[in-house]
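User: tokens in, sequence out, please.
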């Protein structure tokens, strides 16, 4: 082989090695809030508007509950959040001071928004790494 061809092959090999993604060192940098919205009888409230607001930054995200009354906010930066739920024929419900940490999730259950019963919180539910 000529020296030009050899240099070209070596250069091509170096470029290809640089394109291989590095898989080590990747860690979760976000957390999640997942929950269920239901009425007093435990029936799922579908199509409820659920908003999560980072109380430190004011950044908000919104979703709606699915047919099982479930909602999920993944990829939340660590911080303190407020979850707000609205649905026609139900009084709005709000749960402040939910702390999201890196690599963890929080499960919230919102029952009977009409009577404004307390929202139950179960902490420590792992979130999917992003």
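Assistant: Sequence out:
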């Amino acid at each position: 082989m000529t020296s030009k061809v050899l240099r070209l092959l070596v250069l091509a090999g170096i470029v290809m090695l640089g394109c291989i993604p590095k898989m080590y060192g990747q860690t979760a940098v976000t957390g999640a809030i997942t929950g269920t919205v239901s009425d007093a009888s435990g029936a799922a409230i579908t199509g409820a508007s659920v908003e999560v607001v980072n109380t430190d930054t004011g950044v908000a995200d919104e979703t709606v509950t699915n047919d099982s009354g479930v909602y999920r906010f993944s990829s939340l930066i660590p911080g303190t959040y407020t979850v707000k739920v609205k649905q026609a024929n139900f009084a709005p419900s709000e749960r402040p001071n939910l702390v999201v940490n890196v690599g963890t999730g929080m499960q919230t259950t919102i029952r009977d928004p009409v009577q404004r019963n307390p929202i139950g919180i179960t902490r420590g539910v792992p979130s999917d790494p992003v």
